[in-house]
Design brief:
This protein is of the alpha/beta class. The chain is 39% helix and 20% strand. The N terminus is likely disordered.
């Protein structure tokens, strides 16, 4: 199948329909937001929960509104939508304190995401990411917390035309993120604005002897032998000229989340790979920022760092030692 044929895959038709429904729901809910903002917010959250129940692997539990409880008894602020492990006890699903060991992903929802919302949401993200200690032994586990965190919005409050909108959102994300987060594990994993783009987080390992010239030049700029670069990459419906690819915003969200779930759940890897092969994520745009000095502010345990410096990274989507995490 060539790339032209991929653009006509049925996944685009399905996701176009879902995006249209999401837009219609936003218009309906917005008419009465001022009358009762709380009810409007709950309806918006239920839209996202409905999407996940229909499109994430069917054995994962989707619940709304609750706090996450660490093994030490520390509770997070309220979270709007949560994805629970298939093994999570049914008796606990309707409780409003969700045990962190069973939480796969947590999402904060906004009907209309504003730039001023980001700082508070990012602080909440950091608290959730630090509820449980990180797994160790490989780069993926040391850069990715046990709980995914995302921001979901029907619409937004940035004032820009399409050709500059995604970059202005990128700037707002970066400006707030690097004031708040002190390690890449604390970053939100995904930010989706349904009528604009899905911004997926990516981490790149700059270690070893197989770096490209551009990657080496990045390291020359900070005089480091190796570090981590992180950034957000936007998947938008208007990015590819002359191609009818609406459906990409929510399609890339579902593909990204399914892929992240598949890192720990081998059973869904074939479907995650299939979604990637449909090219629903498309060509994304974004930039990387470099993290600091391993010796001053370590990003990895010493065992993992030494192995990265000596052996570098390996190829393969599902490898926890791959360059892109």
């Amino acid at each position: 199948m060539n790339n032209t044929e991929k653009y006509h895959h049925e996944i685009f038709d399905y996701m176009k329909s879902v995006e249209s429904q999401m837009a219609e729901e936003f218009e309906r809910i917005s008419k009465r937001t001022k009358e009762n903002p709380s009810i409007a917010g709950q309806e918006g959250e239920e839209n996202w929960a409905h999407l996940f129940r229909n499109w994430l692997p069917s054995n994962y539990h989707i619940v709304t509104r609750g706090r996450i409880l660490s093994s030490e008894g520390v509770a997070s602020d309220e979270v709007d939508v949560l994805v629970m492990n298939p093994s999570y006890p049914k008796h606990l699903l309707n409780k409003k304190l969700h045990f962190a060991g069973g939480v796969i992903a947590a999402f904060e929802c906004k009907l209309k995401l504003l730039p001023s919302h980001l700082k508070k949401i990012f602080h909440n993200c950091k608290k959730i990411k630090l509820l449980e200690s990180r797994d160790t032994g490989n780069p993926y586990d040391e850069l990715n917390s046990q709980i995914l965190f995302g921001i979901l919005a029907h619409s937004h409050g940035w004032k820009s035309k399409n050709d500059t909108l995604t970059w202005n959102i990128h700037k707002s994300i970066d400006r707030n993120a690097y004031e708040i987060f002190t390690h890449p594990i604390q970053l939100p994993d995904v930010i989706c604005i349904a009528n604009v783009s899905t911004f997926t987080g990516q981490k790149m390992l700059l270690y070893g002897n197989d770096l490209t010239e551009d990657e080496k030049q990045l390291l020359d700029g900070i005089k480091e032998k190796g570090t981590v670069a992180s950034g957000y990459f936007s998947h938008s419906f208007y990015m590819d000229e002359n191609i009818s690819d609406k459906g990409r915003v929510l399609g890339s969200l579902i593909s990204f989340l399914t892929t992240k779930l598949a890192y720990k759940d081998n059973s869904i890897r074939p479907f995650a790979q299939y979604l990637l092969d449909t090219f629903i994520e498309g060509v994304s745009i974004g930039t990387y920022d470099l993290w600091g000095n391993d010796e001053v502010d370590p990003l990895f345990t010493i065992e993992v760092l030494n192995k990265l410096k000596s052996d570098g990274t390996v190829e393969g989507l599902w490898s926890k030692w791959a360059k892109y995490q």
